[in-house]
Amino acid sequence: MSWLPLSFGFPVVLWGLLALPVIWWLLRLTPPKPQAEIFPPLKILARVFKKEEMPHQSPWWLTLLRLLMAALVVLALAEPIFNPREKLSTSEAALAMVIDNGWTSAPDWSLRVATAERLIKDAEVNEAPILLAFTAEKPNTQIGPYSAREARERLNAIKPRPVPTDRPAVYARVANTLKELPGATIAILTDGLAAKDDQTSFATLLGQNPRNVVWVQPTRLDTIALASADNEVDRFTITAVRAPSNPAPAYLTAGVFDDKARRIGDAAITFRPGEARATGEIIVPFELRNDFSWIALDGQGHAGAMRVLDENAKRRRVGLLSQTPVDQSRLLLSPLYYIKRALEPFADMVEPASPDLIEAVPDLLAQKPAVIVMGDVGTLPESVRAPLIKWMDEGGTLVRFASSRLITAGNDPDLLPVSLRLGERLLGGSLSWTEPQPVAQFPSTGPFADLPAPSEVTVSRQVLAEPTPDLVDKTWAVLADGTPLVTADRRGKGMVVLFHIAPQATWSNLPISGSFVEMLRRIVQLSRNQGASGARAESPVATLAPYRMIGADGYLAPPDGDTKPLQVGGGHVPAITLDNPPGMYGSEEGVFAHNLLESDAVLDPLQRPQISVPVMSERYALDESRDMKAPLLAVAAALLFVDGLIVLWLGGMFNRRRRATQAATAAMVALIVASSLLMFMPVASAQDSKPGDIQAIDAISKTRIAYVLTGEASIDAISRAGITGLTKFLVEKTALEPGEPAGVDIAKDELAFYPLIYWPIDPAAPMPSEAAIARIDEYMKEGGTVLFDTRDQFANGIGTDSASPATERLRDILGNLNVPPLEPVPADHVLTKAFFILPEFPGRFNGSPLWVEASLDAENTDNRPVRTGDGVTPIMITANDLAGAWAIDENGDPMLPTVPSDPMQRVYALRAGVNIIMYMLTGNYKSDQVHVPALLERLGQ
């Protein structure tokens, strides 16, 4: 029986409510206990003219109280449940729960545990044995049967794993155990994503004739994961995937970190409604791109939200090809000599075993190089042209040099970036009127744009390009007379590059210059890797030790004792397993990136299998039902106690002046009755309440620290997590217990409720309106303080001539405020001793001073007054990213690393936050310490 939002375990007991009228009649009929009076004759005579009769029935309000008490007892015996849920119909045979605890389960793992506990609680009523299996554990893990207590202990001991689920093996094991427990109930708690061989797995599990099936899956598939990260020619592209069934748009940010955990780039990724794959781009110089170590999606707390990078995203494999045999006595004239010397520091070079092009080109292509350099190759045989062109279309970079063979080979539009004139151009010499040409400034549209022009380089011979309208767009380097020195053109995903000179120092001295090394380095870095060097079929098998692992929560962590070394190479592509979870394998000298998802990964929704047995569909949720039996009995007992006190009072035990206090007692009883009834009645708003009253009461009921909502989701999330971490630290270390952090819109919300407002400055956030800045100005005038944090310590400091974008934005904001003179916190300032003794105020970064309002006569340290009277500074400015250091996740762990990575720096940052809050709340009470020496001197001590 269910009366929403209340249900009863024994609704038949409610028939007892029909006895309330009988109880009313009996209570009204039964007179109260007679009142005992002492026999004072004079007192009787004094009342002889008063007409007073003893009541013949109980007072109405006492009768109502007793009826309410009886009704509460009847309701309690009916075992009411507030906000009831539908119970699982389980058999006494067994309950088999199969739970997905793979990488997608981490964000809502607490909901999955709560759902499983509800199922265990329902099975406990029938004392049914429980099988408990997890699809991301090892196949030999114990699965039961367990008792309800053992099942709860096992459930609480399991955590999400950063690996895919293995449903076939786990389902087969559960099905084999169910052969001995026919007629069981099977509960399948899925992650909602399809996997390989799902249909076969479900057929195996459900083939044991279960009594019924409980199917639990997420309400929505909001999981977003990283599928690939490509270091392309002029940008870094990040691809994220999600389930195609998600109709809502999604906006998120991917942060890029270097090997010291410093965030050095961001990419915005936008999913349109129903879109399953989206990309983001980071356009930065390739030198900075080579510092990328891993990528993480903000707000996605699972292993698929992180992707690690290795040398395959940086160092390239280069194939060298020449038709000239190597003469050890004339190495300097070898076409590949200077090329090898230039590429050695930053590329892995491979050469074919045979100089024959028919064998050499396939040999090089089989090794999947990123770049193939042809030193003196002219015409290519037809049998190898098509594979070479296909290799370029798939991302390969072909680099060619001019030679006598190339001149006589003729034009090849597929393997040359431009059309060439017949013959060659000779500059200088006895038969030429021209002098050798120097190299001009590199064009701004090419990859050499930021390199200085090599003034010492001259060219005496070259092959010329046919003038075409697009020749300028294909030219990367030119001579002083405007003729091309280096040209290039795209070929599918790859490109072909031509040096219009020979690779030896015979046509030009460019090959023996430092500029040649840098030019080749730029070209190699612009190329795309064609395969992991450790996984090539030709490479030997290597065993790499675990270095840094991706945890289930999407953070890098040291490997645990269960992680085993990873074998790569020999054509073997290692899989993601519990023995080899995703992460970095190797050492500081070099790592192998073992990522969770492949570039073509898709997140397809899981389809519920079609079966003939009854299926109960559930959603992951907390158990919000509440047993009301105990509270109702407690209220009834309290009313019984009150009833006893009233009976004693009516009997004259407490006060003989019944007439004077009867009204007060009745009011008290009525208040108790009304309070009891309020437990079952919704709270109604007063007629004279105004919008925002409840928020105002919440804001002033506890001290709350506010932060400005910038409109950037990732920044606002860090601000809230940071103030949450500071609040927790304040509760642990001080007597202050602040409320939840408050995000405020400075253009709309009331600011006077908050003593401190933290404002992270971000140039991407919209500029506040003049009205909003005016509200901030008024807030500071009324005694509030704003803590501005530009978070750009490693860009530029506050007050420098060359300011970062964040500092420029702060200057624009402060230009509209009445800002007092500022100074770094002096050594004797109250902030340095408000709670902890602190010489500096670090955050996630260290080095930026904390700027506050300057004191009067600040330069005269001997005559410095008590810090700014009894008030506090209305403004503070830092660049150390305080919220980033304070920020904690839902497990209480730090969200962002400090720079440098020093655990004590985070502690000092939290102490700095405590000092700031204590200073805001108590003013300069500790500044009285400056008078201690003078007081002691006057006392003669």
From TrEMBL:
Transmembrane region(s): 6-27, 60-78, 632-651, 663-684
Aerotolerance regulator N-terminal domain segment(s): 6-80
InterPro entries: Aerotolerance_reg_N, Class_I_gatase-like, Double_TM_dom, DUF4159
Keyword Cytoplasm attached: no
Domain of life of the organism encoding this protein: Bacteria
Pfam family name, one: DUF4159
UniProt domain DUF4159: residue ranges: 704-921
Gene3D superfamilies for the chain: Domain of unknown function DUF4159
Keyword vocabulary terms for this entry: Membrane, Transmembrane, Transmembrane helix
PANTHER family the record matches: BLL2463 PROTEIN (PTHR37464)
Stated name of the protein: DUF4159 domain-containing protein
Organism whose genome encodes this protein: Aminobacter anthyllidis
